[in-house]
TrEMBL record:
The lineage of its organism: Bacteria, Pseudomonadati, Pseudomonadota, Betaproteobacteria, Burkholderiales. It holds the Pfam family Cytochrom_C. PROSITE patterns: CYTC. Keywords: Heme, Iron, Metal-binding, Signal. Residues 50-142 form the Cytochrome c domain. Coiled coil: none annotated. It comes from Cupriavidus basilensis. This is Cytochrome c. Residues 1-17 form the signal peptide. SUPFAM superfamilies: Cytochrome c.
Amino acid sequence: MRAAAALLALAAVPAQAQTYGLGLLASERDLAAWNIDVTPDGAGLPPGSGSVARGRQVYESQCAACHGVKGEGKPADALVGGQGSLNRAQADGKPPLKTIGSFWPYATTVFDFINRAMPYNAPQSLKPDEVYAVTAYLLHLNGILPSDTVLDASTLPRVRMPNRDGFVVDGRPDTGNVPCRRGCVGR
């Protein structure tokens, strides 16, 4: 009983922050280095550009070992193919093949994912020009872009993905998905 009473007494005492004198406050410059996300409308895309031809070279040296020579997958996920498999999955009962060309709604999120997470063994090691190029190459392999395409911050957001309209807004009031950039209240 005494132990329980002591625990209750401790729980009633407000927690106090301790200062250990370690570390520094992060500056705006420090935070900017980590602020690398790209939104569907292209906000956050860095300067640079990349062609399908250059993307093929980068892909072969940085991506093919995991995603296959032409993005077919093995050992990692397939990046190419699957067009129409989302609709056929309902009809034939087979799971859809969710690739860049069959599933992703925005080309900018392809760039964002590659930029933040690839290559798997060295994430964030590709330069912006290389990420634009690999994105262009993968979109080309999926039949979305012609072989002479060059992508940059102004052209990438204008790429219309095949499954752009394949997602529906969840209208439930507790599932609002409004991006908050500054001065957000209630989050």
